[in-house]
């Protein structure tokens, strides 16, 4: 028995030591974040693909001299929204890839903590953010401390108790997931790179000098896609790829067994209600799909889009927010060629969405 216990302890210590060295996602030695020195118009910040977006956006909001006049929150489908599409004034797009309602709530709480609330809040919301999938409804890299403060202050202590186990277990789940993905997917060289990720991995370069494979972030937070990603595809190819993306089962994806999650809806209503107390306007945006993808999604998975749109409409009605439905590309005024894939529109299409959704009246001084 002692031999077994000693062997088991050795294995656990080795796993713990490896985990501390690999530091997946910056869990144990602090996340790798770029310096917050402002960069100029015409420059872009080049970031590694696996840095802590949540921490970066929270620090950017806190570092502002005053609250932004316009704040955009959303996932990758909001990434191209820039200051040229919004009313004059301080603008920040704090988009985050793979965003869940827990991320919206956590970042909004950080905004409240820093007293940097905007005059206009624009929320791009995908169906996945409101879904009740088989995996956790709190995203694995969410700021659980900020989320907990938001839940207590906006929804009450009882609401926190209902998800307390998930909040407490999240760091363990996160660690196991990251270790597994690191071991199964990453090479030894890549694991060493992640373990030593630091400020040197972030670079400021002229936008015109961005390499063909690099992503950049403008000073206003908007994403600049690499040139190779923007290469135009034949209309038939794009149409076939867009249709294929949803012309199959969704099990194993964030939309598998789609249903609106009650807790995610409470988080959404909590964020909007809180914002309505200080902002001139709050707008909920349903971004567009490629027409072929939307047709496949509605045909193969009937009821999914209507449930999603109904949830956003209900949240807007309950809070006095504006709901801007542009899930149909035709309603947004976007052609098939204005898409990069089944769900990510090009900048020209996003500009049309913003023109139709952002109130034209000036912000109150």
Salient structural properties:
365 residues, alpha/beta, 5-stranded parallel β-sheet, 4-stranded antiparallel β-sheet
What does the model show?
The chain is an alpha/beta fold and 365 residues long. It has one domain. Helix content is 47%, strand content 9%. It has helices at residues 2-22, 53-63, 101-113, 127-130, 144-155, 157-185, 188-195, 227-230, 235-246, 262-276, 291-300, 304-319, 329-332, 347-357; strands spanning 43-46, 70-73, 91-93, 120-124, 203-206, 216-217, 223-224, 281-286, 322-325. The protein has a five-stranded parallel β-sheet, with helices on one face. Strands 5-1-6-7 form a four-stranded antiparallel β-sheet, with no helix packed on it. Helix 10 runs parallel beside helix 12.
Show the helix and strand layout.
Layout: H1 2-22, E1 43-46, H2 53-63, E2 70-73, E3 91-93, H3 101-113, E4 120-124, H4 127-130, H5 144-155, H6 157-185, H7 188-195, E5 203-206, E6 216-217, E7 223-224, H8 227-230, H9 235-246, H10 262-276, E8 281-286, H11 291-300, H12 304-319, E9 322-325, H13 329-332, H14 347-357
Parallel strand pairs: 2-3, 2-4, 4-8, 8-9
Antiparallel strand pairs: 1-5, 1-6, 6-7
Helix pairs in contact: 2-3, 3-5, 3-10, 5-6, 9-11, 10-12
Q: Strand tally, please? A: 9
* Cα shape: globular
Report the average pLDDT across residues. Answer: 81
| Helical content class | 40-55%
Biggest sheet overview:
5 strands, parallel
Could you tell me how far the N terminus lies from the C terminus, measured between alpha carbons in angstroms? 74 Å
């Amino acid at each position: 028995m002692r031999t077994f216990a000693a062997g088991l302890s050795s294995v656990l210590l080795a796993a713990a030591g490896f985990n501390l060295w690999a530091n997946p996602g910056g869990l144990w030695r602090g996340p790798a974040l770029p310096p917050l020195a402002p960069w100029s118009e015409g420059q872009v910040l080049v970031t590694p693909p696996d840095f802590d977006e949540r921490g970066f956006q929270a620090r950017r909001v806190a570092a502002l001299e005053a609250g932004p006049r316009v704040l955009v929150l959303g996932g990758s489908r909001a990434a191209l929204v820039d200051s040229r599409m919004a009313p004059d004034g301080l603008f920040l797009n704090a988009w985050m890839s793979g965003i869940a309602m827990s991320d919206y709530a956590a970042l909004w709480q950080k905004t409240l903590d820093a007293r940097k609330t905007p005059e206009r809040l624009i929320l791009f919301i995908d169906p996945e953010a409101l879904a009740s999938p088989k995996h956790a409804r709190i995203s694995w890299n969410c700021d659980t401390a900020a989320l907990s403060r938001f839940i207590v202050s906006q929804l009450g202590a009882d609401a926190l108790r209902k998800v307390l186990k998930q909040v407490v277990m999240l760091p363990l789940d996160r660690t196991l997931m990251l270790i597994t993905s690191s071991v199964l997917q990453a090479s030894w060289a890549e694991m060493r790179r992640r373990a030593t990720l630091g400020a040197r991995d972030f670079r400021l370069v002229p936008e015109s000098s961005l390499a063909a494979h690099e992503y950049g972030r403008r000073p206003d937070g908007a994403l600049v896609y690499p040139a190779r990603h923007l290469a135009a595809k034949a209309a038939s190819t794009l149409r076939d790829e867009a249709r294929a993306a949803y012309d199959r089962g969704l099990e194993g994806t964030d939309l598998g067994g789609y249903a609106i999650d009650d807790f995610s809806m409470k988080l959404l209503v909590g964020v909007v209600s809180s914002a309505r107390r200080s902002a001139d306007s709050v707008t909920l945006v349903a971004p567009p799909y490629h027409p072929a993808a939307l047709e496949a999604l509605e045909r193969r998975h009937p009821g999914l889009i209507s449930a999603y749109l109904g949830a956003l409409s209900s949240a807007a009605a309950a809070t006095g927010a504006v709901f801007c439905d542009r899930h149909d590309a035709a309603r947004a005024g976007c052609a098939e060629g204005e898409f990069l894939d089944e769900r990510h529109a090009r900048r020209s299409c996003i500009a049309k969405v913003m023109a139709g959704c952002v109130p034209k009246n000036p912000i109150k001084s």
